[in-house]
Amino acid sequence: MATNKLLLMTFAICRLIVTVGLTVDPTDLLRLGVDGQLSVDPSDLETASLDFGLMTRAKPLAVLHPASAEDVARLVRAAYGSAQGLTVSARGHGHSINGQAQVTNGVVIEMNGSRGRTTAEAAARPRVSESERYVDVWGGELWTEVLKATIEYGLAPKSWTDYLYLTVGGTLSNAGISGQTFNHGKGEILTCSEEKNSELFHAVLGGLGQFGIITRARIDLEPAPQRVRWIRVLYSNFSAFTNDQEFLISLHGLPASQRFDYVEGFVIVDEGLINNWRSSFFSPKNPVKLSSINADGGVLYCLEITKNYDESTAETIDQEIETLLKKLDFIPTSVFTTDLPYVDFLDRVHKAELKLRSKGLWDVPHPWWDQRSSAVMPDEEVFYLVALLRSALESGDETQSLEYLRDQNRQILRFCAKAGIKAKQYLPHYTTQQEWVDHFGDKWDQFHKRKMEFDPRHILATGQLIFTPSFAHPNPNPNNKNTNLLNSHHNPIIASS
């Protein structure tokens, strides 16, 4: 449970270009002439037909491993001109949960990986500008690779996803949120491309892949800290818990010495969750027992906070933390602290992933929850991201089954609607357009207008089930001359969750 604000980022967008003559036959696709690899290999098709949720399957006609942004543009313009109909979806690291990156009778573009990148993009690994403090990256680059590239210069992005094995473009398309983003609110536009297409630029931020495919991104950097003091404190009172969270994020404009660098929270409903899968905070050899803090089996709330530091601030870190903690209203005996390198803190969720993989608990169904940008958030200055991160297990226990957990998710949404709680789904999934209209609310007219301008044949990201593809007219807007590969530039970065 965390309170956050959206951040923005620089990127290049592959936009629709009109051509004619492609039929939806895999052999025709192979004659596209891309520099990368356009594959109809059964193993590639099977991989692209699945996602992290393991709840939806859709097999594409082919999979493109692009060598460059031009490969992506070449495929999109061919698909757009297809008389018989061809849809396109970009896939990052496959962490969608409801088929959002899948496509039937179309092509999935595998943005992650370097199999197809044998030319320009292969040589264009993350490029760091040390003097201007930014990094240019391929849209399919994983955040862990961005970190490796920038940390060599003692720099790092200002804000992160909680999980580094996501792609940059995929995170931007879903308007991610994390525990650092409250410190880096909305970014300002510094420059645009020569096309001056700010409408498209803002449309793709949180646009769910509906308006274009992000092929490159420019990310704002700052000096990377060396170490992190990682603290967890517990609450038995929900109001005290939320009041402290909101107080801490209100400090975002103060000097670094007077605020925490990361603020998140979560609910503990049983003893196992305090030593949960999301982190390696506590050693398995020394788990924390709720009995040690006089918990009587009720619900507890955990506030997770960090303070970054290096050699120059090591002598003052203890005093800074003590001063901040004195202003909070947690259970006095519940302070748990660990100290670790900055890179290890950023990689904490991946370490937990490896533990689950070793137990066979990763590749199971995951019924998760999920101004100018397309991102939809509650219309309030302060809002909470509530994440129910659960796995469905075939253990014989009905309460662990996929259908039981999905039904719980639906019950929660119905409860919010009935109680008048303003809730929006992150990684949204609906099956009717009216539900999408309700989801976007006041932004729907703008969202629909942008779709008609940037993808009037509705060929992109059809797995979202927002729009139905239309192939009646190969060129519904033949007078539109603004159809080229856009390079839009913006600062700084993202927001994830």
Describe the structure.
There is one protein chain. This protein has 14 helices and 16 strands. With 497 residues, it is α+β, with helices and mostly antiparallel strands. It has 2 domains: 1-226 and 329-497, Uridine Diphospho-n-acetylenolpyruvylglucosamine Reductase, domain 3, CATH 3.30.465; 227-328, FAD-linked oxidases, C-terminal domain (Vanillyl-alcohol Oxidase, Chain A, domain 3, 3-Layer(aba) Sandwich). Strands 2, 7, 8, 9, 10 and 16 form a 6-stranded antiparallel β-sheet that branches. A hairpin with a 4-residue loop joins β7 and β8 (134-138). It catalyses: N(6)-dimethylallyladenine + A + H2O = 3-methyl-2-butenal + adenine + AH2. It comes from Ficus carica.
